[in-house]
Amino acid sequence: MIWAFAIVGMMGLVFGFWFRVPAIFAASVVIVPATIGLAPLSGHSLMTAAVSSVALLGVLQGAYLLGLVIAIGCGRVRQVKSTRLPTQS
User: Fold this and answer.
1) Nearest 5°: phi and psi at 79?
2) Which of 30, 38, 57, 88 is most buried by its number of CB atoms within 10 A?
3) What's the confidence (pLDDT) of residue 80?
4) How far apart are CA 28 and CA 84, in angstroms?
5) Which of 64, 69, 66, 34 is nearest to 52 (CA)?
6) SS (H, E, C) the chain
7) Is the pTM of this model over 0.85?
């Protein structure tokens, strides 16, 4: 189970550094059913799987925020330039 937390944490850092919110949403959608689906195979109860899912989601989101802060600190996040519409004369 420790490996799951390490993998999800690294995945969150990568997502925060290169990708944006849709990637973190997709990862969350994959983590919950995978954790609950693999629980009976590893001998854990459904309650343990639910708690592990919530903990994994917390690690994913925390690591995502850390990756985002690192990306902003390194200047990898591009600022949106204001676009001006051409004016008609």
Assistant:
1) -85, 140
2) 57
3) 53
4) 37
5) 34
6) CHHHHHHHHHHHHHHHHHCCHHHHHHHHHHHHHHHHHHHHHHCCCHHHHHHHHHHHHHHHHHHHHHHHHHHHHHCCCCCCCCCCCCCCC
7) no
Q: Which amino acid is at 65?
A: L
**What's the pLDDT tens digit per position in 21-75?**
888 889 999 999 999 888 888 888 889 989 999 999 999 999 999 998 888 887 7
Contacts of 45 (CB under 8 A, 6+ apart): 39
Return the structure tokens found at 84.
């001006």
Residue 82 pLDDT greater than 70, yes or no: no
Separation CA 39–CA 36 (nearest Å)? 5
CA distance 58 to 51: 11
